[in-house]
């Protein structure tokens, strides 16, 4: 008898809304259509993922959306893929890239891929970026172009 090992998901959950809190205060909320838990306990999010970051007053300050994501349990890191957009509403800055990582332990977001950052005054093009998780303090590793945007009166 030839037995094959099953490598598919151990569970499937639909209509996912997860909340991360700190001292009974909502810090992050994530929503997506489905979550697959794999045999190694990684979690796969094959559909659009939306993440909402909240400031200390409970206001949604930053949003992140992507086409898909994967939680890598052994590293406690989310690998976020597809068209990734981070929108910091407070600073009116938007980052766009194809891939990034979110380290839950140190609350950092980073990528080695090309990124575009749109601010009210400029459009920055770069390769590689490091940021805190709510995108209020970021650094482009290699700036490849800056376009100044003149505001219309």
Features of this protein?
6-stranded antiparallel barrel, lipopolysaccharide transport protein A fold, single chain, mainly beta, LptC, 153 residues
Please characterize this protein's 3D structure.
The structure is a single chain. With 153 residues, this protein is mostly beta strands. It has one domain (11-148): Sandwich (lipopolysaccharide transport protein A fold). It has strands at residues 11-22, 25-37, 43-45, 49-54, 60-66, 68-72, 77-88, 93-103, 108-118, 122-132, 138-148. The chain has a six-stranded antiparallel β-barrel. It is globular and about 70 Å long.
Briefly characterize the structure:
The protein is mainly beta and 153 residues long. It has strands at residues 11-22, 25-37, 43-45, 49-54, 60-66, 68-72, 77-88, 93-103, 108-118, 122-132, 138-148. It has one domain: Lipopolysaccharide (LPS) transport protein A like domain (lipopolysaccharide transport protein A fold, Sandwich), CATH 2.60.450.10.
Structural class: mainly beta
Helix content: under 10%
Compute the separation of the termini in Å. 77 Å
The residue ranges in which pLDDT falls below 50 over 5 or more consecutive positions are none
* CATH architecture group name: Sandwich
The fraction of residues assigned to DSSP E strands is: over 45%
CATH homolog superfamily:
Lipopolysaccharide (LPS) transport protein A like domain
């Amino acid at each position: 008898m030839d037995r094959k090992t099953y490598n598919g998901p151990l569970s499937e959950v639909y209509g996912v809304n997860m909340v991360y809190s700190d001292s009974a205060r909502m810090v992050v909320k994530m929503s997506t259509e489905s979550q697959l838990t794999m045999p190694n306990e990684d979690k796969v999010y094959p559909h659009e993922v939306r993440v909402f970051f909240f400031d200390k007053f409970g206001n949604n300050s930053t949003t992140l959306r992507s086409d898909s994501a994967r939680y890598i349990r052994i590293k406690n890191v989310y690998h976020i893929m597809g068209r990734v957009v981070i929108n910091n509403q407070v600073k009116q800055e938007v980052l766009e890239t194809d891939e990034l990582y979110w380290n839950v332990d140190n609350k950092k977001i980073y990528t080695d891929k090309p990124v575009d950052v749109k601010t009210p005054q400029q459009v920055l093009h770069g390769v590689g970026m490091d940021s805190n998780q709510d995108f209020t303090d970021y650094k482009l590793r290699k700036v490849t172009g800056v376009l100044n945007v003149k505001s219309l009166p």
